[in-house]
Design the sequence.
């Protein structure tokens, strides 16, 4: 037996209460673990975009389109090294509930600009050669069990063809991965020309353009040159870095960081009060036992340390279980293609933060009861004269 | 030749509640010889337990001195008092005051956590202490699995395990039937006679007091009668 045995035995003195407290703390750390992973995944998406990649979209709103002629004009703008374009497709497979992230892109230039997309050379050649060919992200292909050579009808939730149908028959010619596992592969690309030629409306329009400047130092000049070209036109443009564009895109869901920290903070605050109050009660129940320990010769600082250690052990037990559950939950969420967050995982930094919070949480909830325990008047607590 | 262990000089103790001051005793003086077995008797509120607490250094007098083995303990700091108690005093309470989360052996081992003894040596001492109270076969039992008498024997083993000079017993048989009480008292007598432990026992029970070498009657803060136990 040692002091840790005493601490552990005291903690589990009332098993049901200890288990309920552990479950409470576990829940808080589960929320913290998952939300931190989501926040990190969003940030990873933003941080990994090359600094010299710009997005030009409709100035009114990035979901509105612009004429295809803009693409040709931007190619000749000073400082633009390469450019491609893409359009929203809002795809679905078989039924509209089976949402598929899909973009109609100028395939050749798209693969040049997004050089991080990796696929076998023969698939790349086939993709570029076939009008109905699509490139499917590996995770999306896995979800629907698609492989190269498959043909299926790809529906669009927003576009109609001139014949009234909303279906484009496509062939899987390439399956791509990315150089970083933090980048999602939960979407597909189809040829812009194939999509555009049969549109019932909005033909010869594009969604946005992606520009390479070759040097982030040229970004400001290129932004000024591109947006300047279309100033005072019917469709003005707004060019930003891809990171800023992604940030703004995510921002439409609200301030994710603030939401995440508010939810986790609220969970911690609520559980802090519950655990703190319960710890005070738990120590109050043991006043006599602590008085006996003092009588036996245990010094007050050691009793203080016991109670504090008990609180920290409680927090660590709940916290570690919560983080373990968060790992499992992250793995489950990462499997949902619609969420498209492959980087959903606990990083070493998140773990360190979590352990710091566990220790802090334990100290915070244990401090008041530990001070009370240290100050117990032995004679009074023993209930004598 | 006598060997004085405790020397209490002009000891007083009073409690203040609001404006009222409650005097437990005043100018109480006494000595306790090493190896003595004293029974302190008296009515409720006469200051028996307070006196025991002062002897054990878990309470401080309002005046006077408590000297144990040449060391004035009433002026020691809390931390020094804690260390002194751990090595010199064994406490035995009326309601046993065992830790309900620990088994018998772990309860006995508790005071040894304050020593630098090895795990092996601690185990050996726990076994010896449980042997003395004839409870080794119950070493792994939780306290709630033990009878009152067995719990008190565990408490005696706990008081004994660090080999203290003094055993301070507060109504050690107050919660036990006569037969069990006699067994406990015989154990205390054995510890006094064979191991030379100085035993100071507070009791209401004249039958228990018969086991002591000396009886002291405390009433209204004074020793009103004292003499050899029959």
Sequence:
């Amino acid at each position: 037996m040692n002091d840790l045995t005493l601490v552990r035995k005291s903690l589990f003195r009332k098993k049901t209460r200890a288990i309920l407290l552990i479950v409470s703390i576990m829940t808080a750390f589960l929320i913290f673990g998952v939300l931190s992973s989501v926040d990190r995944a969003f940030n990873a998406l933003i941080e990994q975009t090359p600094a010299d990649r710009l997005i030009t979209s409709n100035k009114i709103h990035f979901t509105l389109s612009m004429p295809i002629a803009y693409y040709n004009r931007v190619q000749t703008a000073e400082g633009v090294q390469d450019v491609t374009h893409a359009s929203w497709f809002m795809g679905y497979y078989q039924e509209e509930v089976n949402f598929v992230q899909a973009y109609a892109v100028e395939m050749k230039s798209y693969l040049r600009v997004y050089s991080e997309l990796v696929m076998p050379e023969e698939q790349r050649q086939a993709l570029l050669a076939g009008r109905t060919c699509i490139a499917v992200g590996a995770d999306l292909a896995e979800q629907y069990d698609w492989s190269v050579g498959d043909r299926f009808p790809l529906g669009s939730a927003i576009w109609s063809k001139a014949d009234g149908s909303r279906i484009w028959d496509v062939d899987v010619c390439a399956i791509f991965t990315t150089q970083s596992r933090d980048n999602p592969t939960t979407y597909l690309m189809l040829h812009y020309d194939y999509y555009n030629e049969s549109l019932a409306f909005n033909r010869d329009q594009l969604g946005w353009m992606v520009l390479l400047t070759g040097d982030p130092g040229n970004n400001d000049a290129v932004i000024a040159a591109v947006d300047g070209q279309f100033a005072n036109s019917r469709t003005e443009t707004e060019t930003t870095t891809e990171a800023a564009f992604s940030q703004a895109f995510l921002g439409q869901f609200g301030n994710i960081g603030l939401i995440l920290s508010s939810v986790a903070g609220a969970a911690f605050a609520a559980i802090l009060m519950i655990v703190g109050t319960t710890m005070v009660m738990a120590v109050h129940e043991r006043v006599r036992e602590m008085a006996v320990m003092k009588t036996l010769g245990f010094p007050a600082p050691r009793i203080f340390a016991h109670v504090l250690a008990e609180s920290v052990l409680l927090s660590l037990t709940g916290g570690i279980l919560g983080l373990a559950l968060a790992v499992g939950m992250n793995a489950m969420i990462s499997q949902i293609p619609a969420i498209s967050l492959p980087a959903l995982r606990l990083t070493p930094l998140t773990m360190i933060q979590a352990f710091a919070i566990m220790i802090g949480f334990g100290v915070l909830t244990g401090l008041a009861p530990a001070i009370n325990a240290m100050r117990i008047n032995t004679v009074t607590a023993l209930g004598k004269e | 030749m006598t060997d004085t262990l405790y020397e209490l000089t002009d000891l007083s103790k009073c409690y203040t509640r609001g404006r009222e001051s409650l005097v437990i005793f005043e100018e109480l003086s006494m000595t306790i010889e090493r190896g003595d077995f004293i029974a302190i008797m008296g009515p409720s509120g006469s200051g028996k337990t307070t006196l025991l607490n002062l002897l054990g250094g878990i309470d401080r007098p309002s005046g006077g001195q408590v000297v144990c083995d040449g060391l004035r303990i009433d002026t020691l700091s809390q931390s020094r008092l804690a260390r002194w108690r751990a090595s010199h005093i064994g406490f035995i309470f009326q309601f046993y005051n065992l830790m309900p989360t620990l088994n018998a052996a772990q309860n006995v081992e508790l005071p040894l956590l304050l020593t630098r003894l090895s795990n092996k040596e601690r185990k050996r001492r726990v076994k010896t202490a449980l042997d003395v109270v004839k409870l080794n076969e119950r070493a792994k039992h939780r306290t709630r699995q033990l009878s009152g008498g067995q719990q008190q024997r565990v408490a005696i083993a706990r008081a004994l395990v660090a080999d203290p000079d003094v055993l301070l017993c507060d109504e050690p048989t107050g919660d036990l039937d006569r037969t069990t009480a006699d067994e406990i008292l015989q154990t205390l007598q054995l510890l006094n006679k064979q191991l030379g432990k100085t035993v100071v026992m507070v009791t209401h029970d004249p039958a228990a007091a018969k086991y002591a070498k000396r009886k002291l009657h405390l009433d209204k803060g004074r020793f009103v009668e004292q003499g050899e136990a029959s």
Notes: Chain A has a mean pLDDT of 88. Chain A has two domains: 3-46+255-381, 60-235. The interface with chain B takes residues 1-3, 5-6, 9-10, 12-13, 288-289, 292-301, 378-379, 382, 384-385 of chain A (CB under 8 Å). Residues 300-334 of chain A form the longest helix (35 residues).
